[in-house]
Predict the 3D structure of the following.
Amino acid sequence: MKNLENLEYSEVKQDERAVEKPNLKGDRRNFAFLILLYVLQGVPQGISVAIPILLQNRGVSYNDQAEFSISYFPFSSTANSVGQQAGKFIGFIIFLVFESKDFCNSYIFSEPRNQGLFTLSGFLMFWAIIYLLITILIAIFKSEKCETSQELHETTDYGIKRAYPILVDIIKLKPVIQLCTMIFTIEACFAAIDAVSSLKLIEYGVPKDKFALLSIPSAPVQILFPLFITKFTTGRKPLSFYFKLFPCRVITMILITFFVYNTRAMLASDNSILYFYVGIIILFLFDQCLTRATYAADGSFFSKIADPLVGGTYMTLINTFGTLGKRVSVTFFLWLVDKITWKQCSSSANTFSVQNSTTINTCANI
């Protein structure tokens, strides 16, 4: 930890040339275009979050959920607060709400139908067409700005052949090894709740469309909240701010666990249903605030310690360790829940317990 503190206080030698105040002059269209690309990147992430809810609604085992969670691993080289969160909102909340036949029959269709407005296959086909069209438009209308010979001469070219050897040297640094080890393992403290809480809520009786609606208040928080905490995350010690938030996240996880554990009892009582939904929304909001704050804090810290010559590559490397550590933990805890979960099957002859992964086949044969 001491080395990490030294790393935080260490100063990176900066170029002494005058730096103009950053602005979007001449780049507003490019910035909007970049946000669009991040939105497109976020849509499959949102779908990958929605599919476990659909699987849980169909009674699959947690072992199968663990196998599916591996699909999220490729999204461990990526980070963006606005575009990706908007895309995840579309791929997760919008899809789940309009995929629900109960929601659509209640609020959209004039006559009841057997399926919702969206289907998984139709939703995927729609976005496949969108991706194809945007790719074609990029190829036709988007071109790189031609650099002058002077700009090319002044810019150091760090291509693949030079960037990766530099990354190898970075990884060998003892403070970097300690930092990567910490961020790879620290999310394991929260991975069990992140992975299982939503699935347990569905299992215990919360309809998937209502669960998606519960997530709506947290969507603007995920997008906008980092803007309001900038003054706390851009100081000299952003990592210290991260560690101050850590106990708050632990307490929030404990409270969410309590609510999830008591879901069935609270939903069974008409007097407590309202309190349950209000409580879980508040907890989800608070959890998202803390999560966004910690992400902003460690992102600020990473940008401070990154070598300016390979800044983007440096930060991507560190972010990859953090996100991959979380995904590995999620997969492990889903697998573990399957192994330690037992259910009772009853028949006219007897009652016996079976492991969760064998529940469907065994109980069906009673």
Remarks:
- Residues 8-19 have pLDDT under 50 and may be disordered.
- The longest strand covers residues 342-346.
